[in-house]
């Protein structure tokens, strides 16, 4: 017997509200809703629903889309939407290790990231401006790779600045623990400077110019004057770890990637590095 469409619509509405609270744009939310509704319609036709989503349901849907000769972009958009929905549901297991066709390797490009010189220039510029909060934000994004929404969600008690084990803890939605990321000496130093300068007794860590929790758009606006985005700093973090030879599974864990194939995009190496790679491995 077919399930009633109306019984899960509130769930999609709740998902949309969660996206809005994460400061997603109206167009992004509209796209997510449209894709999720298509997935919902397919689930209903198969006698399933969003309320009881299982990994096999996601795999069957991706396989169905590919059998319909949908473009790789369409399949990836569906998977990304379902992955975000799984994050909202706190059911990340339903999207782990989902098999799908991969893009032709010759068309793959590693995400755009900063060079070492560009990183140094960025850090010099933000330090020159002298805002302790902005300096701390740039260092946190660049040295932890957390998402801008995760940065804005940080609270004072998510930061551990003990001498030997400094770290920050990123929480998933609804307050549940996500992952803990060790802090570099520089991040620790500039976080301490920012926290000391604020003398802030509020729950949240980063404060806006209006004395509220800072928003992703405010962070994006601040970074715009340095000609970078939060995404680019996150890509730089992942790329630097991969280039230093850090195991891809470790990079995925630190970045909070649900799908290790996302992390593998950073493995694409310039041709000029191949010779040095062989010498490093076998000399």
CATH architecture of the largest domain: Orthogonal Bundle
Approximately how much helix is present in the residues? 40-55%
- The CATH homologous superfamily name of the largest domain equals Intergrase catalytic core
Radius of gyration: 21 Å
Contiguous uncertain segments of 5+ residues: 1-7
Q: How many helical elements? A: 13
Spatial ordering of strands, largest sheet = 1-2-3
Total number of distinct structural domains: 2
Strands, total number:
3
The main β sheet shows up as: 3 strands, antiparallel
| Class of secondary structure makeup | mainly alpha
Distance between the termini: 66 Å
CATH level 1 name of the largest domain: Mainly Alpha
In short:
The chain is mainly alpha-helical. The chain has helices spanning 9-21, 26-45, 55-67, 72-89, 116-129, 132-144, 148-152, 185-198, 216-224, 230-243, 248-255, 260-264, 274-282, and strands at residues 159-160, 167-171, 177-182. The chain folds into 2 domains: 5-101, Orthogonal Bundle (DNA polymerase, domain 1); 116-271, Intergrase catalytic core (hpI Integrase, Chain A, Orthogonal Bundle).
């Amino acid at each position: 017997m077919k399930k009633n469409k109306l019984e899960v619509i509130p769930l999609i509405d709740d998902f949309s509200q969660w996206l809005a609270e994460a400061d997603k744009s109206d167009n992004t939310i509209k796209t997510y809703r449209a894709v999720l509704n298509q997935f919902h319609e397919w689930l209903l036709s198969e006698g399933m629903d969003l309320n009881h989503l299982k990994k096999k349901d996601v795999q069957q849907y991706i396989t169905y889309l590919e059998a319909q000769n949908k473009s790789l972009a369409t399949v990836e958009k569906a998977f990304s939407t379902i992955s975000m929905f799984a994050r909202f549901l706190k059911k990340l297991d339903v999207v782990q290790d989902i098999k799908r066709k991969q893009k032709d390797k010759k068309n793959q490009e590693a995400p755009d990231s900063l060079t070492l010189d560009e990183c140094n220039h960025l850090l010099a510029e933000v330090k020159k401006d002298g805002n302790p909060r902005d300096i701390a934000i740039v260092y946190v994004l660049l040295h932890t790779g957390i998402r801008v929404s995760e940065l804005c969600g940080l609270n004072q008690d998510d930061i551990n600045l003990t001498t030997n084990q400094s770290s920050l803890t990123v929480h998933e939605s609804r307050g549940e623990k996500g992952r803990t990321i060790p802090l570099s000496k520089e991040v620790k130093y500039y976080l301490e400077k920012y926290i000391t300068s604020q003398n802030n007794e509020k729950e949240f860590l980063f404060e806006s110019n209006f004395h509220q929790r800072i928003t992703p758009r405010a962070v994006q606006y601040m970074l715009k004057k340095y000609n970078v985005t939060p995404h680019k700093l996150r890509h730089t973090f992942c790329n630097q770890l991969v280039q230093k030879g850090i195991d891809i599974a470790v990079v995925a864990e630190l970045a909070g990637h649900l799908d290790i194939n996302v992390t593998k995009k950073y493995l694409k190496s310039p041709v000029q590095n191949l010779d040095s790679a062989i010498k490093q491995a076998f000399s």
